[in-house]
Amino acid sequence: MMKPQKIGSLMALLIGLVCLGVPGAHGAQPWELARQMTGADGRTRLEQPLELGFDAVNRRYFVVDGRHGVLMSFDEEGGRLAAFNAGGQIRKPVDLLLIDANRLWVADRSLNQLLYIDVQEKQVRAFSIRHPNGDLVFVDRLDRDRQSRLLVLDRLSGAILVLDDNLQVSQTLAGGKEFQGFSDFKVKEDGIWALDGLQRRVYHFDGQGRLQKTIVLAGELSFPVAIEVDESGTLYILDRHAGDVRTFDAQGRFKAAFLVKGKREGQLWYPAALAFDWARRLCVVDEGNARIQIYERK
Fold it and tell me: What is the pLDDT of residue 251?
């Protein structure tokens, strides 16, 4: 039997490790749950949220539901507004990118197409994207750079493709010889930040697509799938299997972990995506719990 003084010493050590914020430890939560979106107040409830986009002008959230094949819109307070599937032409959406209040791009996996949708004109145009050698691009996550060029993550090669006005691949962004493929990327004022989840590395490209830095993430990560970067340069990495968010400094050193795996309010169950909204709130697409959770700094 362990002696009382040894038990006390062990407990003190464990408490000390939590306070120090060692990898795997979850200390004080720097974010608090402000609201969540489920779509329960409408006829169609969220079942498989995969990604979300923002209309910062009108303060609206748009969520991709892969199970229903629809895009759902929500107001700033999380209230459901509408569900939209472009007359059945959206089937298996995986991401969306708003151009303005009436126009958007949708990555649809059913026929592996990129859909251009003009809601006001009730127009939908489908495009198949190909590499310069003719190979088909498996469209996944979408964004636009500071020159308004469309960026597409190719799910097969794991590379980020820069498209010109004719939707032709004008540039390919990838990592070095150990590159395993990007799982997510974000466009920021200082360029493009991309996550190679398998190699636990973050790549930073400048606005012209030139690689500036490769960051090796320290500490334990089970299955990192999404990235965000705040104004201080802190990296936020969403771990799908661990069900938490981990932060790292610009050198890849572990800073803290917050949120935990679970099915209760404020917990995550196989989350899929991470993004800051127009008010710098942290939005987590919680696929397993079929909801979007929005956190504000304490």
Answer: 96
